[in-house]
User: Fold this.
Amino acid sequence: MFVAPVNTEALLAQAQAETLYLNLIEQINKDFNLANEGIDFPLSISPDELKIQLHEKIYRMIQYKFAEYLNLLYIIDVPENEIKQLDGSDLVILAEQVAFLILKREWQKVWFRNYYK
Assistant:
């Protein structure tokens, strides 16, 4: 049964433990490209670097490309109620929280696809 990780570190550790980390990177790249937000994380990227670069990308999108940011959330299918619960007073923290929600949703897709194949 799928259990959603509580934070980014736990999610990335679980992805590596289940040897689905590369699938997670591929899913992130695929969905960002579907949203016309070209991002191309190499499959060799470390989990820490993935976390940092994703956070930076989301931060820049919130600041400079808000419509595209909303489109990305829609394409990835991040639950709207989870986004609405976030405190948007600090943009850096908000971007970090949204990056986690994106990773969590992408991980859910990868996990279910692998579990039910």
In short: The radius of gyration is 13 Å. Helices lie at 8-17, 21-34, 47-64, 66-76, 80-84, 91-115. The chain is about 70% helix and 0% strand.
